[in-house]
Amino acid sequence: MDTTTQSRKQGRKRGSRRGNAAPTIADVAREARCSPMTVSRVINGEGNVREETREQVLEAVRKLNYSPNRAARSLAGGEQLRIALMFDNPSSSYLSEFLMGALEEATRSDIHLEVQSCENAPSNATLVGKMIEGGITGFILPPPLCDDQSVLDLITGAGGIAIAVGPGKASGSNGAVMIDEYQAAYDMTRHIINLGHERIGFIIGNPEQVASGRRLNGYRAAMEDAGLKVSDRLVAQGQFTYRSGMVAAEKLLAVDPQPTAIFASNDDMAAATVAVAHRCHLDVPSDITVCGFDDTDMANSIWPELTTIRQPIREMTAKAVKMIAKIARTQRQGDKPGPEHVMFPYELIRRSSEAGPSLAKFDRHTDT
Amino acid sequence: MDTTTQSRKQGRKRGSRRGNAAPTIADVAREARCSPMTVSRVINGEGNVREETREQVLEAVRKLNYSPNRAARSLAGGEQLRIALMFDNPSSSYLSEFLMGALEEATRSDIHLEVQSCENAPSNATLVGKMIEGGITGFILPPPLCDDQSVLDLITGAGGIAIAVGPGKASGSNGAVMIDEYQAAYDMTRHIINLGHERIGFIIGNPEQVASGRRLNGYRAAMEDAGLKVSDRLVAQGQFTYRSGMVAAEKLLAVDPQPTAIFASNDDMAAATVAVAHRCHLDVPSDITVCGFDDTDMANSIWPELTTIRQPIREMTAKAVKMIAKIARTQRQGDKPGPEHVMFPYELIRRSSEAGPSLAKFDRHTDT
DNA sequence: CCTCATCATGGTAGCGCTACCACAAGATGC
DNA sequence: GCATCTTGTGGTAGCGCTACCATGATGAGG
User: Fold this and answer.
1) Which of A16, A33, A93, B131 could join A297 via S-S bond, C-beta 3.0 to 4.6 A?
2) The CATH number of the domain where A91 resides is what?
3) Do B17 and A104 touch (CB under 8 A)?
4) Do residues B96 and B203 share a domain?
5) What is the pLDDT of residue A9?
6) How buried is A347 (Cβ within 10 angstroms: 0-12 exposed, 13-18 middle, 19+ buried)?
């Protein structure tokens, strides 16, 4: 007995920070006059605890400012969850939001996060295989990886959990968090139309990403619903890169009559459009309205700042982490949950790159 | 004995993933025909292990593909290291590199990383206090926070470990990882001079960041060493933002004779300079050379891509994490190490925004 | 030759928590 | 009234690792 107490005290010394040692579940149990088990149950929100007891425990927790030791939890609780964020061709503005969301949630839930670039891997198959071998339970896939069905199948096939973040369409075989790309593009187009524009150009994103098509369709539908013709000359192909945006914008601005607004499928291409417009002596927004999509850093670091669609990337990634944790828990209990698809709300952010069509241009165009 | 084996088997079942359960230190010990302790020593690189034994252990580790259980490690090893990345006004391109570096290292060393924004905090003092209270051991501070001596003092005063990443100058009281801002700016200026330019404009960064002054000094020194006068009209004040870069660039381009090159203190301002130049019907680089600093995402997402100075942000942040881990370990042993300052190499990245001065402009200028 | 450092290694006891089983007390069924 | 649940609670035994002490083996010094 004596020895035990002594060694415990010694142990304490190690874990100390400032004067007071961190309270343990045992301390709480003593305080609440119950067993550590009961405390554990309360902390973890399990049932079968009398309301009165629960209150006492919570009271004690509050009093001692107890917070459970993560390490002990995962040690005792079986397995440590490890999640990998896989990147193929990270756009850094997207990436940082992405990382922040994942990191916050991972910290909260004591999940180990790892970043993994696909770029230098011999093949995705071997990479995924190795990672699962190495103990990675879940994979979070941002675009464009999230659209790659072969990667998704690879992961689920190897027993991993894959969540696609921002795919163009949800795959049946795995979870996904996304926004309604179609509707967002529709709304943006509608918004531009409401500003008074009729000749609205559109720059398509990388054709390999499913979302690109969705955005295009949203644009088309909004135009058609407003009774506006979508001439082929109003639509230019881009690749989501700045460079491709320049080429596309040049093409669109060479059309006569010029569009009075251009909606680019992402902010980089919108920024490029602004640059091209400026070179053509067109002021943004007084001569031409330019809108983007994604609300990346680019959107508000250039001038004029871009009207764009904001995706809650951070929240979406956090959700993806949560989903993996939940699925892993369920799987460990033997169940096999179906893939969950969560749709997030987007937001149309109005900034200074938009305006009604200028009168001069307006006049050039005869009807209305 | 029998019971032990049995219960151990049961335990195994939990942690299983596919057929094989993760090997434990005991498995390795058995394989290497030594005690778990010896394995532990080898794994952790402690001394006092015979070379022969060490080899055996490493062999066994390789054979079983053993990797230590993080949770158990931190549980047994006393304290879990928690490091916070504090942001004040994150530029996302910087941020993502930052996060990646930190995350990679944190994963490797089983350190818990947390991101913390200062933006909504009532005061930095209370925030830092709360975090240390909450068990944060180390703080990593990117610019502009790393220049804020009061924050640094706050952290060290409260017993935390602060590492500044990319400060203008190293503070004596805490660790820092940085590049030689002065020399980098000197080199870039020298590089532009070598291209044949003589009227080289400079856009200063945010005056509150110490690095801004360093970069300016580097520019000045290189100009003077080359026998070129630095007229006040060649230097414009910026704030590191795109917007401020536009204003500064407009000012510089209004000077007669126009500079044939502009060196902006960061990429955002350089990008703005490119935009302004284009609006003034100047081609980059044939009419004017524009160089940036930092090599953020901006530098190669615009067109033309910017010649700039690359800081190894990722490596720097990783180093910062390592430094905190090391200091924490040392502190736990009672020693108090002096602050370490590590200088990283930068790199001048040549891209397509640079060229020799055009002949037309060259002629306008008489000498040479 | 014996003591006393020094080295290489092993044994033991937890770190703080949860899974699992046990058990008492009340509720329900026949 | 006894078997059978259900519910709330406690006890125990580890999770995989490392700190600490103990041990045996070696070499140095007297």
Assistant:
1) A93
2) 3.40.50.2300
3) no
4) no
5) 33
6) middle
Which of the residue ranges A13-22, A59-68, A83-92 would you say has the lowest mean pLDDT?
A13-22
Instruction: Verify that A227 and A357 share a domain, yes or no.
Output: yes
Q: Do A321 and A292 share a structural domain?
A: no
Average pLDDT (A42-61) is 85
Q: Which residues of B touch A138 (CB under 8 A)?
A: none
Q: How remote is the C-alpha of B214 from its chain's centroid?
A: 18
Question: Domain check: are A174 and A92 in the same one?
Answer: yes
Q: Which amino acid belongs to residue A233?
A: R
Shared domain check, B322 and B297: no
Q: Is A113 on the interface with B (CB under 8 A)?
A: yes
- Whether the per-residue pLDDT at A360 is higher than 60: the answer is no
CATH number at residue A25: 1.10.260.40
- Tell me how crowded residue B287 is: count the other CB atoms within 10 A of its CB: 18
- Binary contact (B75, A78; C-beta < 8 A): no
Judge whether A246 and A216 are in contact, CB under 8 Å: no
In a domain, A58, yes or no: yes
The verdict on B251 touching A (C-beta cutoff 8 Å) is no
For the question of whether the overall pTM of this predicted structure is more than 0.70, the answer is: yes
Q: What's the number of domains chain B is made of?
A: 3
Alpha helices in B44-148 (DSSP H): 51-64, 70-76, 92-109, 124-133
Chain A, nearest residue to B87 by Cα:
A100
How near does any CA of chain A get to the CA of B282, in Å? 9
Within an 8 Å CB–CB cutoff, is residue B93 touching chain A?
A: yes
* 8 A C-beta contact, residue B232 and residue B259: no
**Is residue A303 predicted with pLDDT exceeding 60?**
yes
* B354 secondary structure, DSSP code: -
Q: Is the pLDDT of residue A259 over 70?
A: yes
User: How many A-B residue pairs are in contact by the CB < 8 A criterion?
Assistant: 140
Omega into B257 within 30° of 0, i.e. cis? yes
B180 touches chain A (CB under 8 A): no
